[in-house]
Amino acid sequence: MSRNVQQELFSEDPHVTITVPLTEAQRRDMQAEADSRSIFVGNVSMDITPEMIEEHFGRYGPIERITVVNNTHKKGTAHAYVEFETEDSMLRAIEADLSVLDGNVISVAKKRTNIHAFRHQGGIVWKRGGATKTVP
């Protein structure tokens, strides 16, 4: 996701735009909002295409973005993320859990928002699922 957002200027020239850097909080909010409309699709064939994923999940609602990740720990499979236009579409798409896509039984779950480590008073604070661990 871009760390910049373009805002239109209210000037006489409609083609003039200004790029304003996003704050870290704004970037996190945008990511969390997108993740609230997204699913994780596991055990996907290495030969899968975004078009095949769109055909399989398009029946649940309009899709904004599809990301296929072939670099996984389990050899021979990949995973994907599908971002829908609405949260309702995402919730309907979860019904596709254990369906077959390109010969593989896939797992479908709501996408979680990654929480990255950050520095705090000389250590790293990891926050995931409400737990906090400080590493000196």
Describe the structure.
This protein is 20% helix and 40% strand. The chain is of the alpha+beta class and 136 residues long. The chain has a domain at 36-110: 2-Layer Sandwich (Alpha-Beta Plaits), CATH 3.30.70. It has a 4-stranded antiparallel β-sheet with strand order 4-5-3-8. A 3-stranded antiparallel β-sheet has the order 9-10-11, with no helix packed on it. A two-stranded antiparallel sheet has the order 1-2. The model is unreliable at 1-10 and 119-136 (pLDDT under 50).
Question: What does this entry show, briefly?
Answer:
This protein is α+β, with helices and mostly antiparallel strands and 136 residues long. It has helices spanning 24-35, 50-57, 87-93, and strands spanning 4-8, 17-21, 38-45, 63-69, 77-84, 100-101, 104-105, 107-110, 118-120, 123-128, 131-135.
Q: Strand order, biggest sheet?
A: 4-5-3-8
| Low-pLDDT residue spans | 1-10, 119-136
Give me the CATH fold name of the domain at 36-110: Alpha-Beta Plaits
Largest sheet: 4 strands, antiparallel
Pattern of helices and strands: EEHEHEEHEEEEEE
Strand content: 35-45%
What Rg is obtained from the alpha carbons, in whole angstroms?
19 Å
Q: Which percent bin holds the helix content?
A: 10-25%
List keywords for this structure.
alpha+beta, Alpha-Beta Plaits, four-stranded antiparallel sheet, three-stranded antiparallel sheet, disordered N terminus, disordered C terminus
Itemize the secondary structure elements and their pairings:
Blueprint: E1 4-8, E2 17-21, H1 24-35, E3 38-45, H2 50-57, E4 63-69, E5 77-84, H3 87-93, E6 100-101, E7 104-105, E8 107-110, E9 118-120, E10 123-128, E11 131-135
Antiparallel strand pairs: 1-2, 3-5, 3-8, 4-5, 6-7, 9-10, 10-11
